[in-house]
Amino acid sequence: MLRFLTVTALAIALTTSVGCKGEAGADADTAAEPGAADTASAAPGASGSSASSGSSAAEPSTPSDAPITAADIDAYERGLAAEVAEVRKVADQMRAAKNSADSTAAMFGSLDTQTQPAGAKAAGIPLERYKHVSILLGSAISARKMNPAMAKMGEDTSMIAQLPADRREEARKNLAQMRAQNSDSVVYRDIPPELREQFKQRAATRLDTLWSELFALRARVAGLAR
């Protein structure tokens, strides 16, 4: 409805403008002095200056996909805490749901697309930047959570010896690849080297906990966990 009214208003404005020009156009053309066009074209400086300032004002600030900074780590922690609070509210709504429509609404409200605006606001950064930071830092945290289990799996090589000879080499290669995927250079590949130790410390003290709680809450709302 809003789109229809907007289009209609625009059409009326254009029609009115064209109508006024049609009525006054002849008088305006007659009244215009012959040198007016030349005078306008002879003063490019004003229009050029305006265009230049407009171009500068339109230049974007920091790109949303710029490299991670220390400030982004702080912002991500604030954003995660805000998203956790949002999904907690949704979990309460799910428990109070009286029908399938209520449940569906709650599940929809727990999606990251619905909670990230609150996260970005708390983080104090644009939404697109927050989404980018969430992907990179969230992926690193996810890998951190999986690392212990993956590393434990890679410690036991006794199974390789029990395999047929023609499969042992392939198994060794697979194990080497799994270990490589758990290396810091892979887990923290999207975090600048100078920030990795700082990120590890923040993850261990707060970020891992917030990320895990957010993951568990979403799974609970979706009915995948209790």
- Count of alpha/pi helices: 11
**What structural class do helix, strand and pairing data support?**
mainly alpha
Task: Describe the largest sheet.
Answer: none
Radius of gyration: 30 Å
Can you characterise this structure?
It is a single chain. The chain has 226 residues and is an all-alpha fold. The chain has a domain at 70-221. The chain is 79% helix and 0% strand. It has eleven helices and no strands. It has helices at 2-31, 36-41, 44-58, 70-95, 100-109, 112-123, 127-155, 158-161, 165-181, 184-187, 196-221. It is flat, with a radius of gyration of 30 Å.
In short:
With 226 residues, the chain is an all-alpha fold.
Describe the secondary-structure layout.
Layout: H1 2-31, H2 36-41, H3 44-58, H4 70-95, H5 100-109, H6 112-123, H7 127-155, H8 158-161, H9 165-181, H10 184-187, H11 196-221
Summarize this structure as a short list of keywords or feature phrases.
226 residues; mainly alpha; 79% helix; 0% strand; flat; disordered N terminus
